[in-house]
# Entry
Amino acid sequence: MRILVLNGPNLGTIGRRQPEIYGHVTLAEIHDRLRREAEALDVEMRWELSNHEGALIDLIEEEDGQADAIVINPGGLAHTSVVLADALRGFDGPVVEVHLSNILSREEYRRTSHVAAAATAVITGAGADGYVMALQAAARLAAETTTERRR
# Structure
């Protein structure tokens, strides 16, 4: 099984940017945790970070037919990007959106996620642990999807 993990704009600065909201764990530390979890789940993981909307869309299109699932933290693009949501709708597999902070308890404009409308599941507000939960959920959902396709 292969899972694509996408990180959107400004996530490379977590751990030092607004730690009162996003925590003190860096994206590199999250990557290490996820790598270990992927090994435990026997999942191949591709990890990518981009501050550019089009680059994220290119990765989604590139991985369609290759990856079994996507975990995505779109950052602020969750609230603004219809085209990113459309690209995820075109992906043939489960999509799990993850956010470090609870976007539903934040500013009004952050409470709507276009990506969530295209996702199979959403994990928000669990901090760095949310990424591990998202990877576990994506693996389970992908396994269920594969089983359903075989029937």
Q: What stands out?
A: The chain has a mean pLDDT of 92.
